[in-house]
Amino acid sequence: MGKFELETAPPSAELLEIAKQELRETPEVRTAAVEELRKLLEAATDLNYPNDEEFLIIFLRPTKFYAESALKLMRNIAEFNKNYKETLYNLMPSDVQNVFIEHNIINILTNRDQSGRRVMIVNMGEPWDPKAVSEEHIFRVLYTIHKLAMLEPATQISGVVVIYDFKGMGMKHVKSMSPGGAKRLLTFIQEASPLRVKGIHFINQPMIFSMVWTLFKPFVKEKLNKRMFFHGDKMAKLHEHVHKEFLPSNYGGTLPALDYGGKEWYPVAEQHLEFIKKWNSCGFK
């Protein structure tokens, strides 16, 4: 498990083949879709988005290169950013630096899984001190990470897997979550993120997790519901989805135990400030 780095290189031939099979991506389809989306954006006078090809691909890949669907996604994102302006306006990595560095709540594996997907681990139990880090802080970190993930062609194509670890969760954690926070997170995942979420896995849930689930369940749509899995402490069930050869020993995997966190890879965020500023400028005019 080497140093964490963003993989911004163009996709390999193998990845392009996956993109062809799963996303309809060919040079011809790509060129036509970019051109069509540019025209649609030009006509959408209330939206402000850059129209360079590399940027537009971020929205075309998750919508399988249907330009109208890509524009709808862009509009959803603009609406989401407007509705949560107080939380997200001009959000820079430095605004959440302390959460990355001082708290081990969110981690990204340096390696991908057997399907080339990025794996994110969110610790919603013992490592989370709700007095120091609010539900909103956690969302701001997640939103910052998603900006970085969008820069990776391999992630655009293969998608992401999220593991929510509830080990050590207590009432103080449950009381720190709200229906509003649940709605914000699920609206983001389902409607306002260009990332392909391929699976959400819940592990080490205690009995009181049922209280948390009642907050989230009303906002889960059928498509995402099919990609949610509840494993408890049975890591073998998790390994059916994310093979143990690609997981650290903390999760029953064969890789070394996690020995790094946000402190080690936060500097990666600081290397891509220009893109983050570019993203922050998007939305309604």
Automatic annotation (TrEMBL):
InterPro entries: CRAL-TRIO_dom, CRAL-TRIO_dom_sf, CRAL/TRIO_N_dom, CRAL/TRIO_N_dom_sf. Signal peptide: none annotated. Residues 96-259 form the CRAL-TRIO domain. One of its GO terms (molecular function) is phosphatidylinositol bisphosphate binding. One of its GO terms (cellular component) is membrane. This is CRAL-TRIO domain-containing protein. CDD domains: SEC14. It comes from the Eukaryota. PANTHER family: ALPHA-TOCOPHEROL TRANSFER PROTEIN-RELATED, MIP26555P1. It holds the Pfam family CRAL_TRIO. Gene3D superfamilies: Alpha-tocopherol transfer (1.20.5.1200), CRAL-TRIO lipid binding domain (3.40.525.10), N-terminal domain of phosphatidylinositol transfer protein sec14p (1.10.8.20). Transmembrane segments: none annotated.
